Amino acid sequence: MLRTILSLFVALLFSVTSAIAQSSDDIVWVxxxxxxxxxxxxENIRAYAQRMDDVNxxxxxxxxYAIAVGxxxxxDAENVLRVYRAEGVIxxxxxxxxxxxxxxxxxxxxxxxxxxxxxxxxxxxxxxxxQPDTQVVIVETPVEPEVAPVPQQxxxxxxxxxxxxxxLTRDExxxxxxxxQWAGYYNSAIDGSFGRGTRASMSNWQADNGxxxxxxxxxLQRDTLRRQYFAVLEGMNLQMVSDLDAGIEMIVPMGAVxxxxxxxxxxxxxxxxxxxxxxxxxxxxxxxxxxxxLYDIMQTLEIVPLDGPRERKKxxxxxxxxxxxxxxxxxxSLKEGQIKGFTLVWPAGDEERRIRILGEMQASFxxxxxxxxxxxxxxxxxxxxxxxxxxxxxxxxxxxxFFIDRKGHVVTTAEAVQNCTKxxxxxxxxxxxxxxxxxxxxxxxxxxxxxxxxxxxxxREGAPRIQSEVAVAGYSYEGALGAPTLTFGQLAxxxxxxGEQELTRLALNVQPGDWGGPVFDAGGSVFGMLLPRDAQSxxxxxxxxxxxxxxxxxxxxxxxxxxxxxxxxxGASMAPEDLTKQASDMTVLVSxx
Length: 593
What we know:
Blueprint (H helix, E strand, L loop, with lengths): L1 H15 L10 E9 L2 H12 L5 E7 L2 E10 H14 L7 E4 L5 E4 L9 H13 L28 H9 L3 H13 L13 H13 L10 H11 L8 E6 L4 E6 L3 E7 L2 E6 L6 E8 L2 H11 L11 E3 L3 E7 L3 E10 L2 E10 L3 H14 L1 E2 L18 E2 L2 E2 L5 E7 L6 E4 L9 E3 L3 E9 L4 E6 L10 E3 L8 E6 L10 E9 L9 E5 L10 E3 L5 E5 L14 E6 H10 L5 E3 L7 H11 E6 L1
Parallel strand pairs: 23-30
Antiparallel strand pairs: 1-3, 1-4, 2-3, 2-5, 6-7, 7-15, 8-9, 9-10, 10-14, 11-12, 12-13, 13-14, 16-17, 18-19, 18-31, 19-22, 20-21, 20-31, 21-22, 24-25, 24-27, 25-26, 26-29, 27-28, 28-29
Helix pairs in contact: 6-8
């Protein structure tokens, strides 16, 4: 009977209310309660639905879930709130809430009133108006068309607040302390124990937010603090996404990203608005070797900057990278032959929102059945600079160099390694800059891990004859070809244009990628290192005019660093194919990241 009376009351309210379009803030729900567990919220919703109409469930974020009835126009909702309280069918601390306070709808299953509250309200009105007029005859108790106003019920008393607080779990109490700490009112341990420090912070928060200062927060006050805490996430539309192909369930900021593609092993969510964000779901079958391979591959991607901590364990890894533009966080783990995880890429400088969203993703990440099919992806979009549709990180620049001893020391041009976050040899081996001689334009690199060069340079004592044939080995196209090439030319002079004794002048056409490469005589001895062209010079020399620092100057610099180079005198001429093989074994790609 009560349910019928209340249904009729709501129908009467709708029948006399204007049908003018309302703003989203004029359309509200009556929030009955919030639960920190989806299971508990679902159980309570079913209980409410047995005695009330229009019951809904919404995710609030932070692991909280709201139960609400509606939607109503605000003036109607105030009457509904008053009547339901008077009937004792809803908690006394129920209040009005707008769509902006909710993330996504989980009850009824498949409903989405938040997408268009006006349409939801209109649909509800249509349903009410469609009820036959004879509905009134089944009412056993007459209902007056006008309800006498009921005095507004106060918030919880201190005693009631203590009772509702006592029902909180220890984790929920810790969460409340974290919220108070975030708001700037609490600076002690997060221990779930409400001592004098916690009580004082509650009192200060109550005073600053217009509540009676009691030191005990009511249910409404706790929910108000929670809404303040999550206000930064407004517009992020955090939704629980269940990807059955990847076998992953997780909260995703659908207000900032949208699903765009599946390219094994990634499900990609790209930016959908002004925020340059990105989310990856990672899913593939494999073992520890597969996991470690993924760890290495991820670090080659442009979305994983070089700066930031890395941690790899036996069955998991975490990658954090940041630069001036983005902050990237990746978590992946191996369980029962399945590798699953996620990546969040967020713009730099928006830390509070990024950390909050990351926390939501971490807390909600759940493995469900299934793993991404290796065939997932678009084979038509092929690019050597892409891995599974993601851009591979490229170095700022790449130049050439050559091994000078069996310990893996490399001679290259100083221009190649200036202003670098990281320097690599052959893109796979990290190196440190041991010395830079700006005057000569030469740098010496030391590998951070042991290397065993196939071959090393033999420095020539003295210069070849002028006009003799010479060759430069280098990565002309900065690594695009995967191997060095030889460029042939002539020795034009054994000194520079201004008589510099440490230089030789060459007559040959080279590319910037060749700079730093070894210059060979006809017998395969290295008599110099190719220098960059001076872009700042006022003189524009012919393209075939290039210079190299000679082997004598290089040998002197090496000796100062305690590096002993192999020496040779003029030897017999080598066949071009033999010179090419020798050059390939000692010439390396030097990359600046």
